[in-house]
Amino acid sequence: QVQLLESGGGSVQTGGSLRLSCAASGRSFSRDALGWFRQAPGKAREFVALINFNGLHTVYADSVKGRFTISRDNAENTVYLQMNTLKPEDTAIYYCAADGLGSGAGILSPSLTAYRYWGQGTQVNVSS
């Protein structure tokens, strides 16, 4: 059974940092594109950051560029999201996702429909 399990969420004040982790099991994701997405209350889920299969190509939403860093450890089947200088508008449930087709060498897509596997999410709260 394929599973993605996020951890590392929590509550911080404005300007604080958190590091999210997403551990995958059930199959290797070393060839997949991986991503972090988030969903704030009352809003649609949106992409935050994407990473290709070898970690050398990343894409970020404009709202997090320069503050968040996505990385991956294929040996551990894990993807990370380092979040610095957090703002109240970063408050959301954060989800990791994998394309599930080994398409990590292609163009990274910010579309939710490009990702077959999803975690359950981890809550991030940023207070002012």
Q: What is the structure about, briefly put?
A:
With 128 residues, this protein is mostly beta strands. Helices cover 0% and strands 46% of the residues. It is globular and about 40 Å long.
Provide a descriptive summary of the structure in words.
By secondary structure, the protein is mainly beta. 0% of the residues lie in helices and 46% in strands. The chain is built from no helices and eleven strands. The chain has strands spanning 3-7, 10-13, 18-25, 34-39, 46-51, 58-60, 68-73, 78-83, 92-98, 117-118, 122-127. The strands form two sheets. Strands 2, 4, 5, 6, 9, 10 and 11 form a seven-stranded mixed sheet that branches. Strands 1-3-8-7 form a four-stranded antiparallel sheet, with no helix packed on it. The termini are far apart. The mean pLDDT is 96.
Given helix and strand content, the structural type is mainly beta
How many E strands? Answer: 11
User: Roughly how many Å apart are the termini?
Assistant: 40 Å
Helix content: under 10%
- Count of DSSP helices? 0
- Rg over C-alpha atoms, rounded to the nearest angstrom: 13 Å
Report the portion of residues in β strands: over 45%
Could you give the order of the helices and strands?
EEEEEEEEEEE
Low-confidence stretches: none
Q: Specify the overall morphology.
A: globular
> What number is the mean pLDDT?
96
Largest beta-sheet characterization:
7 strands, mixed
Write the layout of secondary structure elements.
Layout: E1 3-7, E2 10-13, E3 18-25, E4 34-39, E5 46-51, E6 58-60, E7 68-73, E8 78-83, E9 92-98, E10 117-118, E11 122-127
